[in-house]
From TrEMBL:
Protein name (Swiss-Prot/TrEMBL): UDP-glucose 6-dehydrogenase
Swiss-Prot/TrEMBL GO biological process terms: polysaccharide biosynthetic process; UDP-glucuronate biosynthetic process
SUPFAM superfamilies per UniProt: 6-phosphogluconate dehydrogenase C-terminal domain-like (SSF48179), NAD(P)-binding Rossmann-fold domains (SSF51735), UDP-glucose/GDP-mannose dehydrogenase C-terminal domain (SSF52413)
A matching Pfam family: UDPG_MGDP_dh
InterPro entries attached to this UniProt entry: 6-PGluconate_DH-like_C_sf (IPR008927), NAD(P)-bd_dom_sf (IPR036291), UDP-Glc/GDP-Man (IPR017476), UDP-Glc/GDP-Man_DH_C (IPR014027), UDP-Glc/GDP-Man_DH_C_sf (IPR036220), UDP-Glc/GDP-Man_DH_dimer (IPR014026), UDP-Glc/GDP-Man_DH_N (IPR001732), UDPglc_DH_bac (IPR028357)
Binding site for NAD(+): 30, 35, 86, 122, 155, 266, 331
Family: Belongs to the UDP-glucose/GDP-mannose dehydrogenase family.
Species in which this protein is naturally found: Muricoccus roseus
GO molecular function, one term: UDP-glucose 6-dehydrogenase activity
Binding residues annotated for substrate, in chain numbering: 152-155, 207, 252-256, 260, 324
Enzymatic class: oxidoreductase
Catalytic activity: UDP-alpha-D-glucose + 2 NAD(+) + H2O = UDP-alpha-D-glucuronate + 2 NADH + 3 H(+)
Organism lineage: Bacteria, Pseudomonadati, Pseudomonadota, Alphaproteobacteria, Acetobacterales
Length: 434
């Protein structure tokens, strides 16, 4: 089998490397020359655990290559995957499909033999149909079948998610397209991965529905956490007690400062827009979007309130800036709302993140980037845990107390033991716990 993967971004790189690991010949194509050069030299432009090893091994074994030339990548390909970006369009929240359509048109023009054109990028329901129309216009003679094969990769765990998925979703309209895609995923038969074969529109919608549902689930437990605080209940136990009901499930019931990342914020917005346009408004999703936005603002206000109503001139240590641990991704991270708001209110920020490469450019100019969690805490009046990197879990409350000037701790991820922090002399607050 041969595959061309268009787009050397997060999804394209992970999927390309994993297909190569399955034994498929994969050529990843990207228009950015410097990116392709870096990949050829063995440098991975993103941080994802295990990806560098997977890429280098498969390049060494001759199954994975990189190019800027689409025709070269498509030479002999059974399937061409679209893994280009679909950012939110400015103004209306719709997914911006210009990269998808541009790439689909280039594929149509370059196609020689029969091939399956598969969207891996998250695209709104109806996009596959539009791609079919585009191909029919540009190259009515080409033997191109359109399919949808959405990804469900979590950042930080993407390789595991690809290799051991809960399911594979394939949306297509011909036996040939289903066959090509099933063959690509053949190694997963061994672990009995369910394959959901369906129409193109359905496959497109599964991806949005799954992400929106998870965003709703998180927002629900966040609101329960607020209620717990008022009612004197413990959200941790509420989540456990709820989650043990098999119909609900325990995952994604962890209260926090609001969801972020490259998918949930953008996909909920795009789903809400599509649903509105098609006349079937997804009001639960609309409410979720609004509640999550408001929550990030509320987290900054919570810090200010914990400092007695003003943070002017106060030094605040912020631990964790990325939207979640094990990534350097800052897209829609709560820190992008919380830190500027605290800085605007006059706080002096000492921040630490284990992967600060993108955060450095995105935090307010006066932010001091510390070299470690303890360095950030040095002389701080308050400490805010925003993202629960593992290395923060083991921090000793006594050492923090000895390092800090003040005694306020806001654990916005419920990562620490309240009793241990209170015994060390802290005014400790977490989310939805008494
Ligand atoms: C998500 C989906 O999980 C994945 O299937 C999809 O393809 C892409 O979007 P990702 O964005 O990498 O993956 O992160 P995920 O681990 O799902 O977390 C998303 C956000 O929700 C993070 O900000 C995280 O902190 C937050 N979250 C998650 C919670 O606040 N509570 C939870 O219980 C789970």
């Amino acid at each position: 089998m041969r595959v061309a993967m268009i787009g050397a971004g997060y999804v394209g790189l992970v999927s390309g490397a994993c297909f190569a690991e399955f034994g498929v010949d994969v050529c990843v194509v990207d228009t950015e020359v410097s990116k392709v050069e870096a990949l050829r030299a063995g440098r991975i432009p993103i941080y994802e655990p295990g990806l560098d090893k997977l890429v280098s091994e498969n390049v060494r074994d001759g199954r994975l290559s990189f190019t800027t030339d689409l025709s070269e990548a498509m030479e002999g390909a059974d399937a061409v995957f679209l893994a280009v970006g679909t950012p939110s369009r400015r103004g209306d929240g719709h997914a911006d499909l210009s990269y998808v359509f541009a790439a689909a048109e280039q594929v149509a023009r370059a196609a020689k033999g029969p091939l399956v054109l598969v969207t891996k990028s998250t695209v709104p329901v109806g996009t596959g149909r539009q791609i079919q129309e585009l191909i029919a216009r540009v190259r009515p003679d080409a033997e191109i079948e359109v399919a949808s094969n959405p990804e469900f990769l979590r950042e930080g765990n993407a390789i595991g998610d690809f290799m051991r998925p809960d399911r594979v979703v394939i949306g297509a309209e011909s036996d040939r397209a289903f066959q090509v895609l099933r063959r690509l995923y053949r190694p997963l038969y061994l672990i009995e991965t369910p394959i959901v074969q369906t129409g193109i529109e359905t496959a497109e919608l599964i991806k949005y529905a799954a992400n929106a549902f998870l965003a709703v689930k998180i927002t629900f437990i966040n609101q329960m956490a607020d209620l717990c605080e008022k009612a004197g209940a413990d959200v941790h136990d509420v989540a456990r007690g709820m989650g043990l009901d098999g119909r609900i499930g325990r995952k994604f019931l962890h209260a926090g400062p609001g969801y972020g990342g490259s998918c949930f914020p953008k996909d909920t917005l795009a789903l809400a827009r599509t649903a509105q346009e098609l006349g079937a408004p997804a009001t639960i999703v609309e409410q979720t979007i609004a509640a999550n936005e408001a929550r990030k603002e509320a987290m900054a206000e919570r810090v200010i309130a914990a400092m007695g109503g003003s943070v002017a001139g106060k030094t605040i240590a912020v631990l964790g800036l990325t939207f979640k641990p094990e990534t350097d991704d800052m897209r829609d991270a709560p820190s992008l709302v919380v830190v500027p708001k605290l800085a605007q209110a006059g706080a002096i920020i000492r921040a630490y993140d284990p992967q600060p490469s993108h955060a450095r450019q995105l935090m307010p100019a006066a932010t001091h980037f510390a070299e470690s969690a303890l360095d950030a805490a040095d002389g701080a009046d308050a400490l805010v845990l925003l993202t629960e990197w593992n290395e923060f879990r083991a921090l000793s409350p006594e050492r923090l107390k000895a390092t800090m000037a003040g005694n306020t701790v806001l654990d916005l991820r419920n990562a620490w033991d309240p009793q241990a922090f209170r015994e060390a002399g802290f005014q400790y607050q977490s989310i939805g716990r008494p």
